[in-house]
Amino acid sequence: MLWKDNYKLGVPSIDAQHKELFRRVESFLQVLRSEERWEDKIPKIDETLEFMKGYVVDHFRDEEEYQRSIGYPGYEAHKQKHTGMVDYVLEVTKQYEQSNNNEQLMQQFGGRLLAWLINHVAAEDQRIADYARKKG
Amino acid sequence: MTDKLYNAFVDATHNVLNLMLNIADISDRPADDFKCDEEVDISIGIVGDLTGEVIYRFPVSTSISIVNIMSGMEVKEVDVFVTSAISEIANIISGNVLTAISSDSDMKCDILPPVKKSKLDEDEEYEMKTSCCITTTIGEICLEIRLNRGA
What is the value of ipTM here, to two decimals? Predict the structure, then answer.
């Protein structure tokens, strides 16, 4: 399972969103890496891209709102990382549509998404939790 | 400065592997003698007050183990997916180093997107040139640091 309990920040609403994000990414990767024909995977891939475009934006907004509410000093830098990821998802989606569902492009996206998400939640988001704990 | 960079890259690699892969048992040594039959080389370009590149040399077996741990799936060979995942790790480590350096000094640098290298160029001279081998329970990773002070 991609999600690990030590990724929890201790903020129930954000933790629930992270868990859902991991669940969706895991299911996306299972389809992406399965041995089915690429044509048969396309509907699930399309569904995930649509989900990512909406859910990631909503989740990042909620997380940024939480950071502001606790006065997190790394807010601006963290927000830039969110913006970078949203831009990347939108750019890949555009290229994928223009390339008529190119598989290599999606494999590349899947690999980067996997590493980015784990680092972001396991390392960068944990700094928010550390700050909130210290602040009390 | 070369030692400072060496230590910064070792520390950042240690932290990233620890947090992302839950690998705690990590050691390092200078790696002029790093040899590997099959490897994936990822270059991260650096621009700004420092210019040049850091090349991450991932042996194939280490690359596969990293992605297996991250994904929880069994990956058998290095393909676009694996290359992209380890490229992002190189990107994350390099970004963390430059953030640490800029907060400790007034040096400002940016990183360029990861590029897969097919050949390691050995001819060019650099003001700061060093390499380190990070040893972990899933294999080794070699970092070649090749930088000049920016103009």
Answer: 0.93
Q: How far does B130 lie from chain A, in Å, by closest CA? A: 27
Q: Averaged over B125-150, what is the pLDDT?
A: 93
The residues pairing with B141 across neighbouring beta strands, listed in sequence order, are B134
Q: Which residue has the higher pLDDT, A5 or B104?
A: A5
Give the right CATH number for A11-135 from 1.20.120.50, 1.10.10.10, 3.40.50.720, 3.60.21.10. Answer: 1.20.120.50
Give the Cα separation of B137 and B69 in Å (integer).
12
SS3 B45: strand
Q: For residue range B7-66, what is the model confidence (pLDDT) as tens digits?
A: 999 999 999 999 999 998 999 988 877 888 899 999 999 999 999 999 999 999 999 999
Which residues of A lie closer than 8 Å to B, measured between beta carbons? Answer: 1-2, 26, 29-30, 32-33, 104, 107-112, 114-116, 118-119, 122-123, 126
Query: pLDDT-based confidence at B1, cuts 50/70/90?
Result: confident
Site of tokens 């704990």: A133
pTM: 0.94
Q: B32: Cβ–Cβ under 8 A, 6 or more apart, which residues?
A: B131
Q: Domain ranges for chain A, please list them.
A: 11-135
Task: Walk me through the domains of chain B, giving residue ranges and CATH numbers.
Answer: 2-149 (3.40.1550.10)
Are B88 and A116 within 8 A, CB to CB? yes
Taking the C-alpha atoms of residue A41 and residue A29, their distance in angstroms, rounded to an integer, is 11
B23 touches chain A (CB under 8 A): no
Q: Could A112 and B70 be called an inter-chain contact, meaning their C-beta atoms sit closer than 8 Å?
A: no
